[in-house]
Prior knowledge:
By secondary structure, this protein is α/β, with parallel strands linked by helices. α10 (301-318) runs parallel beside α14. β7 and β8 form a beta hairpin. The protein has 19 helices and 24 strands.
Amino acid sequence: MCGIMGYVGPRDAAPILVDGLRRLEYRGYDSAGVAVCDGRSLVVRKAEGKLSRLADMLDADPIGGSAGIGHTRWATHGAPSDHNAHPHTDPSGEIAVVHNGIIENFIALKEELGAAGAVFASETDSEVLAHLVAQEYDGDLLEATRRAVARAKGAYALVVTSSREPGRIVAVRMISPLVVGLGDGEVFLASDIPAILHRTRDIMVVDNGEIVDVTVDGARLQTIDGRAVERDLLQITWDAAQAERGGHPHFMLKEIHEQPQAVTETLTGRLLDGDEVLLEEVHFPPGFARSLDRIWITACGTALHAGLVAKEVFEGLLRVPVEVAYAHELRYRDPLITPGSLTVAISQSGETADTLAAAYLAKERGSRLLAVTNVVGSTLSRTADDLLYTRAGPEIAVASTKAYMTMLVGEYLLALALGRERGALDSAAAAHLVAGLRTLPRVIEEALGREDEVRVLAEGFAGHEDAYFIGRGLDYAVAMEGSLKMKEISYLHSEAMPAGELKHGTLALVTEGTPVVVVLTQTATYDKTISALQEVKARHALTIALAYDDDTEIAKHADRVIRIPRVPDLLAPVPSIVPLQLLAYYVAAARGHDIDQPRNLAKSVTVE
Ligand code: M6R
């Protein structure tokens, strides 16, 4: 996720671009840049680090020119650096692009362009787009861009400008968001409405597969294959704070709703035809997957809960023992980590001190270290032998939602890759899993569609002081995460445990009306978990079951039912967590808490 901007009008473009980028910094902030046409040539300024560095550069040495493009980056391909910062230009410097998203076939395109003599200045996937547009250019930027994107595969948004046609900008949306703002004799382009809302409230949303041709006379919208599109303007009435949160009252709710898009990004370019998966930064030595004798998973908090899901998935699919260890425990144990094992360290930030310490320990003991992380260039990613970036984009709310979701999806991808290399997954089983993964963005969307039902349920929950979450196997892992969400933002005392464990002690705490959430998606243990539900019901608990849409039995047992779309049981944690995130959110909202910054907590725990 990155933020992109464009401007054409009568005013100096650079300050307008920088101002818009500042409002898009939530989408990434590891480097920033602008390209402005001064009437004769393109002037590019870019710098690693926060936007303020670029702003200082421009203050010290301003650029004149009333059309330009800008970018604030969240690295996916190539570490944060000056040369990987956008905009990228073609070798002549006459064409500049900014890009948000991923070009899946960039390696093939680089090879093709390289064979024709192209030299690249960055490690990014984005730079190929500048070369492609230049190669296709014959005097019409719109047509050159159209032909260039026909050669690129992926989920992205792109903005292009050229000194050969000053005052013209072309932009394309292929899944990643893009909006146009129409002012009085000026036009703005941005990844998101908050960047330009203080400039204009007349917004045109660019749809997937559309291209827009922007000049000072306005914005002409077409489908990528050239059909003109008429789009009604939206009149946006949000205030500035609402706009920053995409119209949601809190970042947490915004991030919950971003999950379908985040998962799309996690999957982009990684699922190939049939049963194959491509993890671009995982390079196991030959024979490693086959000889692997143990997997260690280490993490903290929500990331640890994603690890609990991974344990079930890896053991089930790979038939290899998996140990999940809290990083703060592992670092002070004398664990039997041996060479030949794989350690998977999971961390959204890649900076959690305990997780880093456990990762160093695993490496010292000769284990191969694979990082599942969201932050490119983080300490963990620089320490690991192999990397799986989750691509959730910046997560602002302290309570993790979309980062957790993309960790889950990353783990399924890893299981596929290891399973194929290990020979533990046959082609049919892998193809089945690949097909299931492709449905996930839609499945999450459907789960989000039940938000109103969860909100009503939360009203009944908010007056309680204790809650319990139970489940078996994968459902237990989800129960753990649902319970943590509830605790950290609603401040309800909440405990999660395996469904069979309740009767060994905790049942003593269940009294009349105590809410007990029972996660019930695993067919193999369904009947056993129903028995646990009946046990708490017999103590007059308020039983809330989380079950598939097609479960016709559950309403006979539970007081309330939260429904999720049917998926293969192995993938159930993905839809299951959505209503539990929403439940925690609405309980906390009903209790009037500071949801994005809960008391005593921090987004990244960089101390022991
Ligand atoms: O950045 P990390 O994934 O390493 O962070 C680990 C935990 O601190 C984090 O998941 C924490 O539990 C979240 N606030 C939970 O929502």
